[in-house]
Design brief:
Length: 149
Amino acid sequence: MSDSSDQEEVPPHLARYREYKRKQELRKQKKSANKSQPTTSTTSDSSSEPPTSTVDRLINHPLTIPFLKLTLWISLLLFFAHHQFGSVFFLLSIPVFVWQSMEEYKRGPRELSAYSVFNKKLERLDGTFTSEQWERELKYGPAAVRKQD
């Protein structure tokens, strides 16, 4: 059962965050193992990865890229606002935000879209109100409508 959840497709920002947390746990385990085993020389440990600095942790943090994007956008907005083009920049950045948000999330192989035209075999979500159902309710009353497989 755990194999299917490991193979589940997740959004990129969540995958990066999970990878970041996994690396943190590995570092904690290495530190606890190193504390329990005394080392005689520091050169014998050259095969393992070097200790991470604060800068490395900041660079690899999952929120670094979104923070930099937001900072750049605010800076550009202020620049264009100073030159009397702030509203133009804002209006032109809206489609960019929409495009970015649509690109970031990919549906899993079994996840259905709310719009049946985007699903394989035009499969509908449970509870979708269709025109066929509405037509049957008008002709025969609400009691005549049943889920059809």
